[in-house]
Amino acid sequence: MLISLTLQNLALIDHKEISFDERFNVITGETGAGKSLILDALSLCAGERADSGIIRHGADEASVFGEFDITGNPQVADWFAQHDRALEEDTLLIRRKISNQGRSKSWINGVPASISELKSLGSILVNIHSQHAGLELLKPQFVVDWLDRIGELGELKSATKTAFHHYQTLKKQADEAKSQSAQRADRMALLSAKLADIEPLLLVNFDDIEAEYDELSNLEHLMREAVESAVLLDNDNDTPSVSSLLARAMKICDNNAGSKTFNECSHILSVAQEHINEAAAKLYDYAEQQLPDEARLDELNTLISLAHRLSNKYHTPIKELVADAHNWQTELDTLGALPDNDTMDAQVQAAYQAYLTAANALDEARISIAPDICERLEARLLPLALPNARCEFAFNQKPAEHYNAHGKYDIALLFSANVGMPLQPLHKVASGGELSRIALVMQVMVAGSGEYHTPTLVFDEVDVGISGGTAQVVGELLRRLGKHQQLLAITHQAQVAAAAHRHILVHKEHGEQTVSNMQIITDDAQIDELARMSGGVNITEATKAHVKSLLNDIRHADEMTANIPLEELQNFHQSNHD
Known about the structure:
With about 575 residues, the protein is of the alpha/beta class.
């Protein structure tokens, strides 16, 4: 919901902030007063193209600032999540600045934003039905979505969309697998060959192998070294050894055991003697073992030679080969687990059939309900100066390759406003005023269905081509619709303006430089403006009395229609005015 707009140096406005009611707001003023500036400012907040020509004469830049209440709006929350932006409050602030060099900058909640981001967010916040821009209802997808909402086909629509996306995902995977099948086979063969190459290394610890080989290949030398070391530690001949020298030292300490120091050293030397005896025994045992096993040496030598050869072959250090092998095995297992082409084709075909089943159910439901919805649309256009309106949905089946998440048919809404004239697509036959009224009725029907979260609706001269009782019906419809969602409308019809919950008047003030001013009017000021709209330049008491009567009629209609469903409101108006 739009809370307020602040306009700075925009065309004839120097600085103005205007707030809006959460229901039906109307904007009036004489031709050229600047009524469309509010729509221009809102369009800029919604990401529309900026033109430096809109900057006020003598200013370097123009800016607009929009404040929106987004309480309970899941679409906005989803948008922020999809764009990795933080949403911490229920108020959304959009700022847009345009320089006289033609450059434009945008911010969302104070954070810089691209125009594409602003446009996508703006489409959630605002829906502008402009006389000078392509109406939303001219877009084919709008017609399809509208038909589905009024027909309450949400579940069928969602099932079709889900089934189509599942089919597309499987088809893409199958196509990629087929295009890569030859490469996959080659890759699996290569991985298998590599793993076979290094399999012997996977069964051993290479560090242990190298250590064992080094020891066995030097065993004779090591045995001689062991004998020499053992003799130095302990021997039976006259050559002094560590053990004999240690025994002499221990005897001296024992002889002086009365001394604390000698006593402590005696214990220490006793422990040392045990370690020396143990080391000497191990060295003698090592020296007396058999000579190395030549078969074991050959086996170790073969493993080491293989490791160095594979290291050179794969340009990888020996210690990293084993880690690479684990990665190769994982990749091989993954490739081997992929289904074959026939299996994937069967999965794709099953998904396609599931999509066709869902799409057929959706399209059959659409075709079934379309005539009834057209009758309801025609009935609601009748009191809006379109007594001969005829509508019909055209269903044209697409080529199979063009089926999509929305179904198998192109759907268009055909229209004719005149007797004897053929039905044609809306954009070819409907005038701007007719389009606005059709859009209004379509929105009334959506709001009546109670299942659609709508943005702020903006109607630019929805009353073109109507007057009198028809204008009053449009006004009452807008007022009633405003109780379900926020509306803004520019109008020249007093009957429409009188129905608003908030009346904004735009008028020029002439001083050193002409400016446009905007103000919310009530009571006498509102009566004067409605009288101007009804009676022209010369405002009489009779004109004012007529306006007061019109306002009383609006209040009376509020009381009379309070419990009438929105979608049935036009039938009430038609019978009441008849």
